[in-house]
Amino acid sequence: MADPDNQTQPTEYDSPWKEILRAYFKDFLAFFLPKAHVGIDWLRDPEFLDKELDRITKEAKAINRRVDLLVKVWLINGDELWVLIHVEVQGNRDPGFAERMYTCQHRAYDLHRRPVVGLAILADEEPGWRVSEYRQVLWGSELIYRFNAIKLLDFLSNLSELEVSDNPFAIVTQAHLTGKQTRNQPEQRLKEKQRIARSLYQRGFSRQKIIDLFRFIDWVLGLPKKLDNLFWEELSKFEENQKMQYITSVERIGEQKGEAKMLTRQLQRRFGSVPDWVSEKIAEAEPPSLEEWSLRFVDAQSLDDIFSDKQ
Fold it and tell me: Residues in the chain with pLDDT < 50?
């Protein structure tokens, strides 16, 4: 997640993009490349070829990689197709981008002898930087590689469509653009984050999809600590009214696991190995019980002193 105090992007900022792409690849193509989506046999699960991609990029000595995916899919007519998805989340112009797209395409084809479709998501902030081909021309010899390129900035003119779309990548795009627009505007970012988070429930998404999309939203719309606390208070009230404790319940589960892990470590340090009955008791406990046991731990002389019900 971005640093909530200064809203700067971390070094490993590609992870949320890669996670959401892998989780909802079918929706990704439906949103950004529908002509490919309709030609794929989705009864067969896509295969993410991480090892093959590592080999390609290593041999190509690729640098500045952000989110690269090499995915194996099948056509409706039964033919096999390799799809190279190159998602660029770097916010700066990159003069070597088109060449890297070509290098990955060429090496993927050379390695597997299958068609390769290139798709680049340009998430920079320069409206005039539009790259969709790599070209070499010398002494009558010419090489041209054209790939699909989507400029996220173009969606700024269609925000109303993003607001009503039930495709998760409408939310991803909206959150990404909002993060760019509200940089150094924490109060405005809080309002937009609240609005986008609430919209997750209004679009009819499943519980798991809401949780997955919120992870992305929470990352690109990081807030200072004080405003972050306000956000969670408002979201908790909203979920209670909607009778859907999705996101805040996951947050509580995370806190609960952290408290349970800390208590277990304290017990191990003082009493040595922890018996199974204690581990089971901790694993099943609610936060109030964990807090109470942690307080008892300070003066306890035995495990019974901590976990006895006769207190």
Answer: 1-13
> How big is the CA angle at 123 (ends 229 and 176), to the nearest 5 degrees?
25
- Whether 281 and 245 map to the same domain: the answer is no
Domain for residue 181, yes or no? Answer: yes
Q: Transcribe the chain into DSSP letters.
A: ---TTT-PPPTTTTHHHHHHHHHTHHHHHHHH-HHHHTTB-TTS--EE-HHHHHHHHHHTT--S--EEEEEEEEBTTS-EEEEEEEEE---S--TTHHHHHHHHHHHHHHHH-S-EEEEEEE--S-TT----EEEEEETTEEEEEE-EEEEGGGGGGGHHHHHH--SHHHHHHHHHHHHHHTTT-HHHHHHHHHHHHHHHHHTT--HHHHHHHHHHHHHHT---HHHHHHHHHHHHHHHHHHT---HHHHHHHHHHHHHHHHHHHHHHHHHSSPPHHHHHHHHH--HHHHHHHHHHHTT-SSHHHHH-S--
Domain annotation covers residue 196: yes
Domain boundary among 155, 185, 212: 155
Per the domain annotation, does 69 fall within a domain? yes
- How many domains does the chain contain in total? 3
pLDDT in tens, 208-246: 899 889 989 988 898 898 998 899 889 889 888 888 777
